[in-house]
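Q: Can someone sanity-check these two? First one:
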Amino acid sequence: MTWSTRQLAELAGTSVRAVRHYHDIGLLAEPERASNGYKRYGVAHLLRVLRIKRLADLGVPLSQIAEMGDGEGFPRDALQTLDAELATTIERLQRIRVELALILRQGTHTDLPPDIGPAAQVLTDADRAFTVILTRVLGPSGMGALRDLLNDQRDEPATAEFDNLPADADESTRAELAERLAPYVDELTSQYPEITAPATDSPVGAKRAAETVGKALRDLYNPAQIDVLVKVNRLLYGPDGQPPGKDRRPGPG
C-alpha cells in the first residue's frame, strides 16, 4: 500500500506544501516513483512526517529536527532545551502582561517605563520625547533621579513661557527668559546632578550619551528655545563651561 503526496499529507494532518518543504530541506527522504512518475509513499514516510509535525507543533525548529537525523530515539536534549526556552519566554510574557496592565490602568504612553509614564502625562510633546531619549542613555542613578524629577513637578512660570516660546522670538525676549529660567535650572541641576551628567553610568558610554542628548535637544526644540538653553548654560557655567563665581550667578528675579 502506497500513498500519493496529497494522501500522505492528509493522513499526517499537514499540507502538500509542507511535505515538499520537508524534502527540500532534507528532513524527509525522497520516495520511489511509480511508472507514471508519481511519488509512492509508504508507512515509514508517514511515520517520519508525523514525527516531524509533532516536534514542530511542540516548538522544535525544523533545523533542530534535521540535526536529530532519522533516528526515532527520544529527543531528550532537544526537548529540555526547548523547555528552558519556553520558561524564559513565559517569564518575559508575564512581565509584559504586568506592564500592559499598568499602562492600561494608568492610560500612559507605551514609549515610557510604567513608573515614569504617569508623571510624564503633563509634559509637552517635546519634553515627553526628550524624556524617552533620556531613558535610553541614563544609567541606574540617572533613571532614579529622572523619576524623582518628574514626580517633583513645580509651578514655575518661566518653564511655561519656555514651552510656548515661538521660534521667531526676538533677542531681548530670549535673554530675559534665560535670566529668569537660570535660577530654576540651577536648582534642579543641583538637586538632580545625575541627569545633567548622564555619562557617569550611561549604558551607551560618555561620548554617545552626550551626542544623543545634544541631537535630541536640537531636533525637538525650536531655535529660540535652543538659544535660551545656551544662554542659561552660559549664565550658570560661563563661556568656558566652568562654574562661575557667585557674582556671575543670576539673581532670583
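And here is the second, same format, sequence then C-alpha cells:
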Amino acid sequence: MGAIYILWLRELKRYVRSRVQIVVSLGQPCLYLLALGFGFGPVFKQAGHGSYLQFMAPGVVGMTVLFSSVFSGIAMLWDRQFGFLKETLVAPVSRLQIMVGRTLGGATVAIIQGTLILVICLIAGFRPESWTAIPFAFLFVILIAVVFAALGTGIGSILQDMQGFQLVMNFLVLPIFFLSGALYPLSNLPTAMAVIVRIDPLTYGVDGLRGALVNVWQFSAMLDISVLAAIACVFLGSGAYLFSKIEA
C-alpha cells in the first residue's frame, strides 16, 4: 500500500505544481461550455428541450474527466524516456501496485479537473435539480475517471513513442466523447447509431451525471453504475496484464 500511495501522491503533486497544465486543461471544456452552451441554447429551447446549458453541463464535466484521465497515460511515456519508469520497475514492488498507484493518481487528477469544471458550470448559470444529489454525481465522476485512467495506462504500456500515443488517443477519445450523448439527446437515433452509443462506456457515465444533476435519465442509475463498474474491472485487469509485460 505504501508504493501505491507514493505513486498516487507523485501524480497529484506533479499536477498541482504545474499551473500551466491546470489552466490549459480547462480551456477546451470552457470553450464547449460557452460557445455551444450559449450558442445553441436558443435553438435547443425552441425545439422544446429546455435549457441547453442544463443539458450539456453534465456532459462537459464527463468530457473533462475523460480527456484528463485518458491522457494521464502520456506521463508513462515521459517516465520511460527519462528513466524513471525503469527505476520503478526494478524496485522491490509488484508491478500491479505500480500500475494501481499510477492509475489512481491519474484518476484523482481527473476528478479534481471535473470538480473545477463543475464549479465553472455553476458560475455560468447551471443549477442542479437538487444540491444534495451532487455527492451521488461524484460517484459517476469517480467511475469515469477510474475507467479511462486504466485505459490510458494500459495503452501507454504498449506504446513506445509520444506521437503514437497521441494518434491512438485521438482515434479513441474523440469518438468516445461525441458518441456519448454529452452534446445531444440520444433519443430517436438510427438503429446502427443507437447500438454504437450503447457500446460507448462514457454514455453510461454521462447519463449517470445528467440523471444525478438534472434528473434526466436515458437508462437507469443501477444500469449505469453496473456497466461502469464492470468496465472498470475489465480495464484494470487488462491494464495490469499489459503493464506486467512492459519493458523499460
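A (reply): Looked at the second one. The CA atoms of residues 211 and 217 lie 5 Å apart. The longest helix spans residues 95-124.
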